[in-house]
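Complex record, four chains
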Amino acid sequence: MEGNCTPTLAGFTCGLDATLRLIAGKWKPLILYFLAQGGPYRYGELRRAVRDASDKMLIQQLKELEADGLVKRTDYKEVPPRVDYDLTPLGRSLAGALVPLCSWGTEHLEEVNRVFAERENWAAKCR
Amino acid sequence: MEGNCTPTLAGFTCGLDATLRLIAGKWKPLILYFLAQGGPYRYGELRRAVRDASDKMLIQQLKELEADGLVKRTDYKEVPPRVDYDLTPLGRSLAGALVPLCSWGTEHLEEVNRVFAERENWAAKCR
DNA sequence: CGGGGCACTTACAAAAAGGTGCATACTTGT
DNA sequence: ACAAGTATGCACCTTTTTGTAAGTGCCCCG
C-alpha cells in the first residue's frame, strides 16, 4: 500500500498534501517563518522583511493565514493605524516544521544557485 | 538588517526562500516525498499515486525536477515504453527535509480539516 | 501648507498554472 | 482485428494567482 499515512485523511492523499494546501501561496511560508523568529511584528516591518511582496499580496496572505488560524492580528485601534501580527500556537508549530526546509536551503545554497543559473541560461537560449 | 541567515544568498532572502523556489509547483513536493518512500517508480505508478495530477502536469514537473537535479530518469528504451524515476542524492536529502511537514499534517489533521471546512462555507456564503 | 508614514483597499492587467483532448508507435491480450 | 496499455508531445483554452498603480483617512513634522 503506497500512499497513506493515517486514518481519516478527509480529502488529502497524505499529511504532506494537507500541509501543502494550507501553506500554498507564494509568501505564506516566508511570513510564518519570519514571524517565528521574533515576537509579533507590525505590518510595516513584515512589509520590509518580505521585501518582494506588494502590499496587496502581503495583506491577502496575512488575511488567509488569519482566517486559517495560523496568525493572530491585533489592531490597537490607534489613530495613526497600529496593527501587529503574531503566530498562533498552531502557526508556531507549523513554522517549526518549516525549519528543516530553511536549513536545507542554506546547506545546499551552492547547488541551488547552480540550478537557478542553469534555468537562466536555458531561458536565454529560447530567445 | 532583519532577514538574513548566511552569507552569499545570491538572490534569496534566506534558505527557506531558496528551497521554496526550487519546489514551487503543485506536485513537486508530493512527487519527491513519494519517491522517497520506495525505490524507483515507473511513470505509471507515479501517475496512479499522485492521483489528482494530469499526465501533462506530472510530466512537466518531473522534467523540471530532473533538470534541477533532484530526480533521475531512466529510459530503458524498450518497445512498450519503460521509464522509471528515482531521487538523486540531492533530491533525497530534500525529501528528508519534507518529512516534518508531512508529520505536521498528519498530527494536525483535525485542525486542517476544520480550516478547509470553513473555507468551504465561506465560499458558499458568497453565492 | 506640503510631504510622508501608517495600514490598508480597489480596479485593472499580466502571467503562471492547470485542464482537455487528440496523437504517436509499438505490443500484448481477447 | 480491435481495445488497451505504455510514456509522452502538442495545441488550445480556462482558472487561479500575482503584480501594478492609484487612492483613502488620519496624523505628525518642518
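Note: The domain at 15-125 of chain B is CATH 1.10.10.10 (Arc Repressor Mutant, subunit A).
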